Amino acid sequence: MSLQNNKISGQKIHWQAHQSTNTEMPENTTSAMHYAWELGGIPEIDIRQTADGIIIGMHDATPKRTTTAPIADQDTPISELTFAQVQNWDAGIKFSESFRGEKIPSLEQVLDVLSDYPEREVYLDYKQVDLASLAGVIQKYGVERQVIFCHRDQDNCRTMKRLAPEIRTMLWIPDTEIDTRFGEVAEAGFDSLDMIQFHLVDAEEKPEWRYRLQLQFLQNALEQLREAGLELEVLIFHFDQASLFGLLDVGIRRFAVDEPKVFAAELERYYNK
After folding, report:
1. Alpha helices in 141-250, H assignment, sequence order
2. pLDDT tens-digit profile of 111-121?
3. What letter would DSSP give residue 227?
4. What is the span of the domain harbouring residue 232?
5. Cα-Cα-Cα-Cα dihedral sign, residues 104, 254, 36, 146
6. What distance in Å separates the CA atoms of residue 67 and residue 74, rounded to the nearest whole number?
7. Cα-atom radius of gyration of the chain, to the nearest Å?
8. How many folded domains does the chain comprise?
9. H helices then E strands: how many in the chain?
10. What pTM did the predictor assign?
């Protein structure tokens, strides 16, 4: 296999700290947000809504895995708990003692900070929220152009585009669905989308091309999206220098990564090689 060097001089690389950098920081915390921004990336917040309508950063449906919620609340859905309740728990200590005292942030707290830095952006990964309420919060802080809304259901992207036209939307497609879903979305003219994300999973064997998705398919999709005015992002669950440099050479300019610090260091090496 030959990877054509397609390095585009001066084109910025954008990268998402997937699941709020949960391998390097306590996920969905304000510390994780600042960590990604300071590294030059874009943090992702998984969004859910409490019983009293407050949108918060939380990946799981319940607080058991990431917080110090008492046993009585550990398996209770976030949608049945109030914001005051979730604020009683520590969201950092399970990751590391050094993050003792971290609280689950409300989306408003995050967007309030974002509004002071127009050069920063944030991904909002839909888990369980009322979309009209979400649009209202985003517009309240005047950060529509700084928000990338993402979900696997294109209908939710359409709804958000209608409610908040200036936000960008990203449809993410799991590895096992790329072959069929991408064709379906393309046939519909990429309606209401600004980006598409492919999940790249390692092949069972490790040939020269690391990922299960074929290189030619990736190149074709990248070209098709460019022609349509969209961007392609790849979520690379695992990477090394060779595989990352290969993706950059192909022309990928948006990434989602679980190891932001490692990724940033390799990116620096790429441009200094």
Report:
1. 154-163, 178-187, 215-228, 241-250
2. 999 999 999 99
3. H
4. 14-49+107-272
5. negative
6. 8
7. 19
8. 1
9. 10, 9
10. 0.93
